């Protein structure tokens, strides 16, 4: 006798993503564990990044554009003195420079240049597509293609903790902003190079990681417990 599948709940699930897995991995694990038909997410996080990943369940997938269009808040670790092939810690080190003469005041001055409306050149290692092919796949083949700068807005770019080589920064920005490119550009202004050594998403639009649960905790739940976590579409604010 065939097992009858329960209908999908409809709404939003807030996950605190661990480092080391892709956003697609999270979708797959939730769909498989709870035998759901329709699961998506409201904005990718890089594998090394942690924090808020918004899962869209059932009819909640229709909210994708509204949720992805929201402003984001991140905490990042900006590492001065090194550039990498990916602008973050996942890539190979391209160059290491001396940072002994750089002061906190100089770093703050450089960061201030990137507040407000700025143009960013998206990195090659990104999910943007050229003729349907993600740029990161072209980058793996050693290809570099011309990219257009994109206008983004940085509401805040604050220093939470200054250190050498690592400083903790907080960024509030519009969708499509690359925090690793922000760190890289600060390094270029300072003349010492920099990359993003860690990233955590704190919020997206109206939704906060404070209301999210770790993925492993969610996957250990029963179907009934899981469904209680789903924020109904009517209560989501979208």
Q: Can you tell me the CATH class of the largest domain?
A: Alpha Beta
| Structural domain tally | 2
**Spatial separation of the terminal alpha carbons:** 40 Å
CATH architecture of the largest domain: 2-Layer Sandwich
Element-by-element helix/strand order: EHEEHEEEHEEEHEEHEEEHH
What best-fitting shape do the alpha-carbon axes yield? Answer: elongated
Strand content: 25-35%
Brief account:
The chain has 238 residues and is an alpha+beta fold. It is 23% helix and 33% strand.
Q: What's the layout of helices and strands?
A:
Elements: E1 11-17, H1 23-33, E2 39-41, E3 50-57, H2 64-68, E4 72-80, E5 82-84, E6 93-96, H3 104-112, E7 116-120, E8 129-130, E9 133-134, H4 135-140, E10 150-161, E11 166-173, H5 179-190, E12 194-204, E13 207-208, E14 213-214, H6 215-219, H7 223-229
Parallel strand pairs: 1-14, 3-12
Antiparallel strand pairs: 1-3, 2-3, 4-11, 4-12, 5-6, 7-10, 8-9, 10-11, 12-13
Helix pairs in contact: 3-5
């Amino acid at each position: 006798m065939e097992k009858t599948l329960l209908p999908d709940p409809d709404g939003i699930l807030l996950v605190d993503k661990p480092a080391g897995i892709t956003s697609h991995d999270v979708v797959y694990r939730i769909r498989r564990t709870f035998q759901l038909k329709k699961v998506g997410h409201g904005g990718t996080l890089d594998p090394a990044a942690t924090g808020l990943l918004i899962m869209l369940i059932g009819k909640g997938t229709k909210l994708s554009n509204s949720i992805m269009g929201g402003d984001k808040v991140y905490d990042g670790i900006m590492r001065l003195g090194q550039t990498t092939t990916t602008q973050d810690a996942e890539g190979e080190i391209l160059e290491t420079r001396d940072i002994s003469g750089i002061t906190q005041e100089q770093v703050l001055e450089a960061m201030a240049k990137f507040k407000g409306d700025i143009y960013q050149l998206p990195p090659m290692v990104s999910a943007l597509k050229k003729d349907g092919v993600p740029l990161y796949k072209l980058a793996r083949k050693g290809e570099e293609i011309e990219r257009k700068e994109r206008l983004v807005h940085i509401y805040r770019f604050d220093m939470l903790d200054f250190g050498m080589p690592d400083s903790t920064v907080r960024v509030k920005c519009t969708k499509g902003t690359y925090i690793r490119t922000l760190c890289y550009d600060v390094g270029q202004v300072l003349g010492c190079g920099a990359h993003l050594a860690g990233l955590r998403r704190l919020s997206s639009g109206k939704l906060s990681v404070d209301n999210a649960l770790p993925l492993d905790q969610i996957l250990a739940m029963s179907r009934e417990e899981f469904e209680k976590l789903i924020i109904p579409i009517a209560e989501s604010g979208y």
